[in-house]
Amino acid sequence: MTQEWSQQIVDRVGKEVRRARTAASPPLSGQALSDRTAELGHPISRAVISDLETGRRRGLDVADLIVLAAALQIAPVQLLFPDLPRGPVDVLPERPHESHDAVRWFAGETGLFASSPGWQTGEGEAVPVWTRQDFAPELDRVTLTRQWLKAIHSMRSARIHMRSAISARETPDQLEALEVIYEEARERAQRLGQQMSDLGLDPGEEHPRA
Fold first, then answer.
1. Tell me, what DSSP letter sits at residue 205?
2. pTM (2 d.p.)
3. How far is residue 20's CA from residue 114's CA, in Å, rounded to a whole number?
4. Cis bond upstream, residue 117 (ω within 30)
5. 90, 92, 55, 48: which is closest to 71 by C-alpha?
């Protein structure tokens, strides 16, 4: 089952490479795509691309996946889960999800669904319930980084609005409200920055006053 599932991934990538290559404007030949990968510093031969697109390829390196996506100017995750938004895909063996959910999981936005013991019928029969799993908080660097960047963005946005409000001679109450928004975002960025440091990440020195 695992071998069959892993080959499904390779075949799916190959089909999307071919679709994206021919849908490009102007369309790319296999050789043109190969040339682009060479320009990116990781050449993938026309023969390898052909084998991938026709299902003859038995495996795929992560490096090849990344470079092919860059050469096609699409996100790598689109090659893995191209049947967006709701096409079914086995994210793991016998773990079907809609493609948009698979993309969000791969990007670290949300966990996968998993079956867990749920309700029981009147006859005592267990009815499984699908619940979304959380990422392990002590390991999850992606969510923390995303939250930190959001706080930084809120800081910068509030600061821009404060400057505009000062130039427009807005009322003291309006300026105070913007200052509160800025300070809350700054404190949130500081707190998240400390959590990042605790996980061994380096948020840099400028983030508290970004």
1. S
2. 0.83
3. 32
4. no
5. 48
Q: Where are the alpha helices (DSSP H) in the chain?
A: 2-23, 30-39, 46-53, 62-72, 76-80, 99-106, 141-167, 172-198
pLDDT tens per residue across span 6-47: 999 999 999 999 999 999 999 999 999 999 999 999 999 999
Retrieve residue 42's tokens. 């990781």
Q: Coil, strand, or helix at residue 200?
A: coil
- CB 76 within 8 Å of CB 65: yes
Q: How far apart are CA 99 and CA 133, in angstroms?
A: 17
Q: How far apart are CA 43 and CA 187, in angstroms?
A: 46
Say if residues 174 and 165 touch (Cβ distance below 8 Å).
Answer: yes
Residue-wise pLDDT tens digits, 157-171? 999 999 998 998 889
The predicted pLDDT at position 116 comes to 75
The tokens of 89 are what?
A: 């895909």
- For 115, 117, 121, 127, the CA distances from 124, given in Å and listed in that order, are 18, 12, 5, 9
Exposed/middle/buried for residue 201 (C-beta within 10 Å: 0-12, 13-18, 19+): middle
CA-to-CA distance for 152 and 177, rounded, in angstroms? 18
State yes or no: pLDDT of 208 exceeds 50: no
